[in-house]
Structure formats: structure tokens, C-alpha cells
Amino acid sequence: MSQADIAPPTLFIDGEWVSAVSGGTREIRCPADGTLVSTVDEADRSDAERAVAAARRAFDDSGWPSSSPWERGDLLLRVSDILVRDKETFARAESLDTGKRLVESRIDMDDIAACFRYFGKIAGTDAGRLVDTGSPDALSRVQYEPVGVCGMITPWNYPLLQVAWKVAPALAAGNTFVLKPSELTPSTAILLMRALTEAGLPAGVGNLVLGSGAEVGAVLAEHKDVDLVSFTGGLHTGRTIAAAAAATVKKVALELGGKNPNIVFADADFDTAVDYALTAVFLHSGQVCSAGARLIVQDEVHDALVDEIVRCAEQIRIGGPFDEDAETGPLISAEHLSKVEDYVAKSVAEGAVLRTGGRRPDGDRYARGHYYLPTVLDEVAQGSFAVSEESFGPVLTVERFTDEDDAVRIANDTHYGLAAGVFTADAGRGQRVANRLRHGTVWINDFHPYLPQAEWGGFKQSGVGRELGRAGLGEYQEAKHVYHNL
Ligand code: NAD
């Protein structure tokens, strides 16, 4: 099961593969059974500082920031082609690190290739605009320029996807970067640096450091030579990073958590609502920032809908990444599993009704992995811990509503605002509710689809800024006004 071709040196700094100065390493183990997947370097502050210095030099002294955006776009298209060519290698590496089903990793790889293709295609399409000065004797224009050195810090649930959403637009705009992926899932970031090199990325433009958040991630948030820090991860870490970044007033982009409502009206197609409610929350064992973990059901259909969801949840097949029958997999780590257990225990203690799950599955085949049964908590109280906090596991909470206003009020009663779903047969109502929801993405009669050309991000404490779409490129650009007195 091991990945023989991933071994130190695994830090990529100034165009070279190097080992951590301290000689530190970390073992990466598959969450499905604890098998050793690879050993990688464990960087410390000094490695991170070397990487920042390399990215700074490449930004200030190489021609990269002023290179043709069309050429940068071509490079991204070449990366996309490499990702398509090597899809299976990338997908297997992702599945080994995360325990995610191979079939899901393959879909992720298609999405990642599409992301590079999208930013490759739009890289040169918007240089800025002429501005009317009101005078024939003055010329005025606004032009877009790269921000500078970008620090990127990413999580373990969609390891390469979250990296792609940052690296592709940053390079399209002409920035240099230092990437620190999650210490739990570094493999595909290593493979991506190889792909960028093969595609022709100049030395120093893209740098990779592997290590802990507190050690290596903190350097990227604090360093005076980092102009922007783009972070995807938990709310608590996001606050720490924003506070650290404030000292140098660097730009901050945050993609944080969500406790995403999924509203089902009584007129919704029953089977469709059940199917989507299940995938909304149990995909990747609920380790999805936009998981529909908070079902909000109209009174009339509550009992029938929840009974059917419970029945189906009990039939979900659990297994490892290469188990073709599996419909969902393990959690990322023993530590995370114990957090999910605590979340369920606390929710039940405050009054939630445990309808199914709430424990690890029986059987020897699950003993060495971090598995947890699909869980349904019914009759949770509004404003309670269960509906306010993200479990980031396979746990569905259920609330009831009476009418449209009630549904919108309950769904908006959260400090998060990442994504939401609405199931109804009434198209007008679907649109009305979507317009009133304070969430960055709203799906009507669907859950989870996203497009590289459509912005992604959070309202309220789900984040700051947007990834993907035109605005996703804009995060990595400065607008400069040039006024010329003729
Ligand atoms: P996390 O916040 O624990 O870690 C994310 C990254 O931050 C890791 O690389 C980690 O090493 C680093 N980090 C930790 N402490 C740090 C510090 N003090 N300074 C700098 N970096 C630090 O999150 P996680 O457990 O890896 O991921 C799960 C979370 O990510 C969930 O809350 C989920 O909702 C969120 N997420 C959000 C999106 C989105 O698009 N909004 C996407 C995926 C995941």
C-alpha cells in the first residue's frame, strides 16, 4: 500500500527538492487501517522562512509578475493536462492519505483539472479598464496587478482541491506562493509541485513546506514578506490566522466552516429529498465544509421523512478507499473520531433524540480504522449546541418548521453562512427562499454541485472573500489607478 515514490526530500524551495533543516520527518498513515503510506519531511520555522525568502526573490527579481498572462494561462492548461494524464496516481495518493473512496477522489481530480483549465482560460482576458476622466487632456485607466507573495494554508478533507482553488488563480494573476497543506495529507501537494515543474513553472515561484500549523503555518500568517494569506480550515484557526495577519496588515482570505441547513418543504418530491438529504450529510463521512448536516423539515412530512432517512442510513455500506462496495469511509484520525463522539454525546445530553448510529461500527474489519456510523439526531432544539457547532462527521441533526418564514428564520439562525439547500416543488418559493438565505451558495432541489466559474465562499463567520469565479481571481489581484495628465 505504500507510496514508494514519496520520500524525503519532500520540501520544494526555490525550484529544488530539499529536506527539513532539522532532519525531522512525519509518517503518513491511511485512516482506513493505519497502514504506513509514506514518510515526509517535517519543516520548522527556518524552512518556512527560507521558502518565503525564495518566493519574495522570485516576485521581486524574476520576470514572473510581469510575464504575459496568456503564457501563465498556457502553463495552467499544461498543468490541467498533466492532471488528466496522471489522474489515477493522484486519486490513489489522495485516497491513501484521506481514506476517501477512490471513486470520490477520481471525481475530485476531474474537478481539480477543470479548475486549472478555467483559470488558465481566463488568465489573460481582463487587463483592466479605461476610466472616463471628463477631460480630453487626461487619460485614466485601472489595471490589475498581482498582490505579491501568497501564503496558502489548506485542510485535509479535500487536500488537492483546496490547494487548486488557491494555486491556479494565484499563478494566473502573476503571484508567487508558499503552500502549507495539512500535515495529515501532503501527498498530492507534492505531486502537484512535480506537475508544476513539468509544466515549466520558474524556480521560486511555487514553494511547498510541510509541517504543523502552529510552527509552519504561523510563519505564513505572520511574516512581513507575505502579502496575502489564504486559509481554508476551521473557524478557530481562521480567527488565529486573521489575528496574526493583522500585525502586518496583509490581505486575508478565509474559507471556514459551515453548519449548513437543508430545508425540505412538504411539497418536495419525497424520494428526491431523502436521497439528497443522505448524500448532503454522509458524503465523505460528513467531512465536507458544505455538508447538509442540519435538516430542517416541514412539520407535515417530518415523521415520514426522518423514518425513511434513518432506514436508509442504517443500510449505508462503510469501507476503505479501495472497497468497491463502500458508500462511505473512515474519519481522518483518531483525534477527529473522538471529537465526533464528544459532539454526539453532548448533543444527546442536551436533549437530542439519537435515532440511529452514535457509535463505531462493529466488526474486526473496522477495528484499525477511524470509522463512525451514520448518525441521526432528531428533535434538536433551535440555538442548541447541536445545531450551532460543526461536527464535521457523519451526523445529521433534524429540526422542524411550520411555514416559509419559519424555515428562513431557522436556517439563518446561525453564525455560519457557507451553503444551504431547499427542496420544494414550487419554483417560485425555491427562488424566494434562496434570495432570503444568508449563505454563500444555495442549492434548489440539489445539494453539493459547484462550478469553477461560480464564486464560492461564506457569509458571516464562514469566511472572508471568495474562491473560484472572477472574484476568485480578483482575490489575488491589486487594482491600480493610473492617471495621465496629457
Ligand atoms: P484546521 O483549521 O485544523 O487546519 C487547517 C490548516 O491550518 C492545516 O494546514 C493546519 O496545519 C493549519 N493550522 C492549524 N493551526 C494553525 C495556526 N495556528 N496557524 C497557521 N496555520 C494553522 O482545519 P482542518 O481540521 O484541517 O479542516 C477542517 C475544517 O476546514 C472544517 O472546519 C471545515 O469546515 C473547513 N473547510 C472549509 C472549506 C470551505 O471552503 N469553506 C473547505 C474545506 C474545509
From TrEMBL:
Question: Native species of this protein?
Answer: Prauserella oleivorans
Print the keywords alphabetically. NAD, Oxidoreductase
Query: Which family does the record claim for this protein?
Result: Belongs to the aldehyde dehydrogenase family.
Instruction: Name the coiled-coil region(s).
Output: none
Q: Which residues form the Aldehyde dehydrogenase domain?
A: 17-482
Name of the protein in question: Aldehyde dehydrogenase family protein
Record's PANTHER family? BETAINE ALDEHYDE DEHYDROGENASE (PTHR43860), BETAINE ALDEHYDE DEHYDROGENASE-RELATED (PTHR43860:SF2)
**Gene3D superfamilies for the chain:** Aldehyde Dehydrogenase, Chain A, domain 1 (3.40.605.10), Aldehyde Dehydrogenase, Chain A, domain 2 (3.40.309.10)
> Could you tell me the superkingdom of the organism this chain comes from?
Bacteria
Pathway(s) of this molecule: Amine and polyamine biosynthesis; betaine biosynthesis via choline pathway; betaine from betaine aldehyde: step 1/1
Q: Which residues form the active site?
A: 255
